[in-house]
Structures are given as structure tokens and as C-alpha cells.
């Protein structure tokens, strides 16, 4: 679960975090109507409801998927444990049960080879957890890691559970939050990215930030779009050759760090620029420092690798 940086996933996480916060704020304004019943923490999902019940809900809370079948004896041992833990974890994850006999297409899409099989979906990203029988201690360890990653990397803190809430009421979905004043511009920026119009995306995000400098989605989107714009057309072989042969060349190190990050080598990108900061001075040092801060924006302030790199940068500066 701690693999390379997927820029699309990071973007989705930031959007999910912002919309979930809006949903919680709106529920609070309406008198706390955002809580769910413990009975709503375990749901049956089929192919027709998968997009809403799993993909959309995964922008609010990690969704653990239990692939099972009536004839599967190990499933009958595992499923009750997962159901009990879903309630015990008090909204930190949602359990979605999928009957493989009735939902062959979903089974194939996830590449399930045998059951029981357990996956998770976080901010639209699928993660395999384990397959076959598992002890409760192993399951707890896996779930603990899942909820930690969901919170640290994706800002998903789970659902508010109220034992007195009516089953089936559910929290107000994040997608039901009224559109914000900049949603049209943000959607235009996303379309521009999808179409490869990086200049258009950059300008759209800047337009949002001109009116709302702290907009988290625009800050992240601009950092991503500018990063992709910088690496567009670069010759990776030449960039890495220049960086290896010219350790004092700040521009060469910055270009290599950009490529490192796009390739998912987060620690390499951060470490390269921290070393550059440490061995330079004046304008060169500041240039490397500013680029490093921009890369922090792409990965996200809550990411443990960013937190560690900030400490290392402070040591290099002082």
C-alpha cells in the first residue's frame, strides 16, 4: 500500500478530502444529520450498485470488499469476523460483501482467483489485502495499516457512527454537497489535463487561486500540472546523464528530481534536492529549496515521506 506516487490518486484523494470536509460541515449545520447507524457499516453490493456503493463511498471512507459465496466454507468463517470488526472499528472502514456467483463480472475485474478474497478501495484505488483464511490478529494488523494509510495519504477519517441513527439513513453523500463557486473552473482544469492541454490546466488552476489562494484542490492541481508541463519533452537519458556528471548544476538536479517524482521515486527526488540545498548557497540554494517545496505540494503535506523530507531540509538549511 506504500507504492509509487500515482498523481491521479493523489489528486482524487485531495478532492475526496475537501468534499468530505464539506459534507461534514454541511451535516453539522443541519444539526448533526451526517451520522450512520452501525447497521450501515456492512452492505451487500452488486454490479449495478458498485459505482455508487463502493467507488463513490471510497472518497469518504476506505471500503473493504469481501468476495464470498454461499457454498464457500472458509467464507462462512471469515465473513462474520469482518462484519464484527466493521462495527468495532466504528466507521473507520465500510465492509462491502459481494457474492461472486451473482457478480461474476466484478470477480473478473478484480482478478479474484479464489475465495474468500478481500480487497480494499481507497479514493477509487483498488488494493489487494489478503486471500484465503486468515487469523483475526492478521486481519486486525491489515485493517490498522489500511485505515492509517487512508488517513495519512488520502485524508479519509471515516464515517461518524451514531447507535441511535436510523438504519438506511446514512450520511449525506459527499457528492450531494452544493457545488462550490469554483467548481466550473476546476472541472475545466481537469478536462484540460485529460486532453493533454497542460497550459490550459495551469491557467485554469491559477484563475481559481487568484480568487481563492488557499483552495486545496487548485493548489494541488497546479503543482501537478506544472510538474507534468516541466517534464514534457525531456530526454530522460540526457537528464540523468547531466545530473550524474554535474552535481553542482542546480538546473540539472531539479530536472532529474522532477523525473524521479513522475516515475514514482519519491525519496530519490526529495533526497536529490536536499543534497543540492546542502552543497549550494545563495540563489542556487533557494532555487533548489523552492522546487523541493513545490514537489511537497504534489505528494501532499500529510505524506510521511514529506514530513521526513521537511526535517531533512531543515537540517540541510540550518
Automatic annotation (TrEMBL):
Region Disordered: start and end of each range?
A: 159-178
Q: Which domain of life is it from?
A: Bacteria
- Give the matching Gene3D superfamilies: Glutaredoxin (3.40.30.10), Tetratricopeptide repeat domain (1.25.40.10)
The record's annotation in InterPro entries points to: Thioredoxin-like_sf, Thioredoxin_domain, TPR-like_helical_dom_sf
> Sorted alphabetically, which Pfam families does this protein's record hold?
Thioredoxin (PF00085), TPR_19 (PF14559), TPR_20 (PF14561)
Residue ranges annotated for the Thioredoxin domain, each copy included: 14-148
The name on file for this protein is: Tetratricopeptide repeat protein
Taxonomic lineage: Bacteria, Bacillati, Actinomycetota, Actinomycetes, Kitasatosporales
Amino acid at each position: 500500500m506504500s507504492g509509487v506516487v500515482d498523481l491521479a490518486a493523489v489528486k482524487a484523494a485531495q478532492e475526496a478530502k475537501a468534499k468530505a470536509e464539506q459534507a461534514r460541515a454541511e451535516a453539522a449545520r443541519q444539526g448533526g444529520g451526517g451520522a450512520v447507524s452501525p447497521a450501515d457499516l456492512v452492505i451487500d453490493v452488486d454490479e449495478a450498485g458498485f459505482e455508487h456503493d463502493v467507488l463513490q463511498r471510497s472518497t469518504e471512507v476506505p471500503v473493504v470488499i469481501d468476495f464470498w459465496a454461499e457454498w464457500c466454507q472458509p467464507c462462512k468463517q471469515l465473513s462474520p469476523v469482518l462484519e464484527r470488526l466493521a462495527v468495532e472499528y466504528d466507521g473507520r472502514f465500510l465492509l462491502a460483501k459481494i457474492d461472486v456467483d451473482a457478480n461474476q463480472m466484478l470477480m473478473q475485474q478484480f482478478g479474484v482467483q479464489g475465495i474468500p478474497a478481500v480487497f480494499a478501495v481507497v479514493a477509487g484505488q483498488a488494493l489487494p489485502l489478503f486471500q484465503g483464511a486468515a487469523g483475526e490478529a492478521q486481519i486486525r494488523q491489515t485493517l490498522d495499516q489500511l485505515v492509517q494509510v487512508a488517513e495519512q495519504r488520502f485524508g479519509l477519517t471515516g464515517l461518524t457512527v451514531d447507535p441511535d441513527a436510523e438504519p438506511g439513513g446514512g450520511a449525506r453523500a459527499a457528492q450531494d454537497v452544493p457545488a462550490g463557486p469554483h467548481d466550473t473552473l476546476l472541472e475545466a482544469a481537469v478536462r484540460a489535463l485529460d486532453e493533454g492541454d497542460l497550459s490550459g490546466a495551469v491557467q485554469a488552476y491559477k484563475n481559481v487561486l487568484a480568487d481563492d489562494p488557499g483552495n486545496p484542490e487548485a493548489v494541488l492541481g497546479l503543482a501537478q500540472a506544472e510538474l507534468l508541463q516541466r517534464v514534457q519533452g525531456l530526454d530522460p537519458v540526457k537528464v540523468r546523464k547531466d545530473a550524474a556528471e554535474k552535481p553542482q548544476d542546480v538546473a540539472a538536479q531539479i530536472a532529474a528530481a522532477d523525473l524521479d517524482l513522475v516515475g514514482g521515486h519519491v525519496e530519490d527526488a526529495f533526497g536529490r534536492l536536499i543534497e543540492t540545498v546542502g552543497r549550494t548557497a545563495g540563489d542556487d540554494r533557494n532555487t533548489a529549496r523552492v522546487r523541493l517545496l513545490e514537489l511537497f505540494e504534489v505528494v501532499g503535506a500529510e505524506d510521511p515521506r514529506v514530513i521526513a523530507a521537511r526535517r531533512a531540509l531543515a537540517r540541510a538549511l540550518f
